[in-house]
């Protein structure tokens, strides 16, 4: 049994050198809380090394629909294929709310409330072939529109890699090179190039 575990760890670590990073990825997110279950879309875009933006749009197709924008920092575990991440962001939505009255032991239930809140996220992510699988916990602190100050949600997301990291970096280098080249041209060179293109 130990040999099997060590073999698995060796493969995981050795594959890390050739890990398939992603520039951006799109997929399906399933969320679960003590209030409801949601289905949504997740789009993740790498903006710097180990730093991504994630946009989430999710709904229970009844009374709760929310949109989230998060900035996430990624840290590798054993291999670049396996990492944990954490971050924060902003949440907007239409949600139901439950207001408890301690005096008469009643709950007032409303829905359609416009809400604004702050999200936090902590997750574990694994990249295999062209698929990114992640498990996370995403607590939300409400600022406007909901009686509950805090709600937590666990999520599972499966994303398909749209652009590999190497491809994304190559495109960024090409853009930077073109920008430097254009800014390095003198006025007379740019003026002459206008006439050359017309001929």
UniProtKB/TrEMBL annotation:
UniProt entry tagged with the keyword Signal: yes
Record's signal peptide: 1-19
Renumbered residue ranges of the record's region Disordered: 164-199
Bias (Basic residues) ranges: 167-180
Keyword terms: Signal
Biased composition annotated in UniProt, kind: Polar residues: 189-199
Protein name: Outer membrane protein beta-barrel domain-containing protein
Annotated organism of origin: Algoriphagus hitonicola
Lineage: Bacteria, Pseudomonadati, Bacteroidota, Cytophagia, Cytophagales
């Amino acid at each position: 049994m130990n040999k099997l575990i060590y073999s698995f760890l060796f493969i995981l670590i050795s594959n890390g050198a050739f890990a398939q990073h992603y520039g951006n990825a799109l997929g399906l997110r399933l969320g679960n809380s003590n209030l409801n279950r949601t289905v949504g879309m997740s789009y993740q875009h790498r903006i710097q090394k180990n730093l991504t933006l994630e946009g989430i749009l999710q709904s229970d197709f009844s009374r709760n629909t929310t949109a989230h924008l998060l900035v996430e920092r990624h840290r590798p575990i054993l291999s670049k294929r396996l990492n944990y991440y954490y971050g924060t962001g902003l949440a907007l939505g239409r949600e139901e709310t439950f207001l408890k009255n301690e005096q008469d032991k009643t709950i007032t239930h409303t829905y359609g409330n416009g809400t604004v809140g702050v999200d936090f996220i902590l997750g574990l992510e694994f990249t295999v072939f062209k698929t990114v699988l992640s498990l996370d916990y995403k607590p939300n602190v409400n600022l406007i529109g909901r009686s509950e100050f805090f709600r937590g949600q666990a999520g599972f997301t499966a994303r398909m890699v749209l652009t590999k990291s190497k491809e994304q970096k190559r495109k960024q280098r090409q853009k930077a090179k073109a920008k430097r080249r254009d800014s390095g041209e003198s006025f007379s060179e740019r003026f002459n190039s206008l006439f050359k293109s017309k001929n």
